Amino acid sequence: MAINYWDMDDEDEVTGEYVVESGGDFPVIPHGTRVACFIDEAKTDRKQAWDKGVQNADEEDCIKLRFEITEPDDYARQKLFKTFWTETGGDEKLKRDKKLFMNIDKNAGGHLMKLKRDATDEDLQRHLVGKQMMIIVGLMDNKKDKPVNYIMGVSASGGGVSKQATNTAKAAPKKTGFDDMDDDIPF
Fold it and tell me: From residue 89, how far is each of 52, 80, 92, 96 by CA, in Å?
């Protein structure tokens, strides 16, 4: 059902100023936590890059991925974002980002590396979106001293999850290799 914005009963509340009191703030994930997730968005972009805290004047190509956490339940449906810059950040940062991206691709089937060319949006969506894997979540303070989560590592989806890296990881459900799909067929 659509909302009719033009037929409002509470026009006296429309003053031109409004602040959302709460909007689904998610809990901060502790540093080193392993979570199960899938990539729900993958695309290329061109935007201004940040290098050593200073915004560069030139625009740069990048790949943007969005991950949605599925386990543990405490963090389910939370989203984490990662931008992979193609040029900015110095050699070490570029090498780290390239290794992280290549391992994400490997966990998703390794199809992008086989292309031997720059991936298009269609390539990214076909080969990354919906793919499950484990990520290791980092925690840092942003410029406003607010804790912010980031993706610090990745592993295959069979590695299990833990609430914190210091906890013992609980095993993910094992696949038996046989899936009796007769019950899943609707006809």
Answer: 7, 20, 8, 10
